[in-house]
Amino acid sequence: MNLDKAKKRIAKQVKKGFDGYPLISLAYFGVTADCANKVEVTFLADKAAEAQVQTFSSNTDAREDETIQSVLVKIIERAEPKTVTEIAGVTVSR
Known about the structure:
This protein is an alpha+beta fold. The protein has one domain. Strands 3-2-1-4 form a four-stranded mixed sheet. The protein is globular and about 35 Å long. The protein starts with a helix and ends with a strand. The mean pLDDT is about 95.
């Protein structure tokens, strides 16, 4: 899938806002705020459920990695969440 198309599809889902559970949350992490080399996908079936977390890593910026962004779209499509959230920016982790 094209990188721009994947990013737009994810942004469209995020823009819908909270609509209940199941919920998928995307969070980007990196050594600096400019480059996210890791993305965590968290799935919550309902408010009381234990979170299921999957992590993807990249040597470059994961936000600009076509493969990772395409996988995120596929995960969202298959999970059929009512809500998709994205933590703004890159969380700096060392």
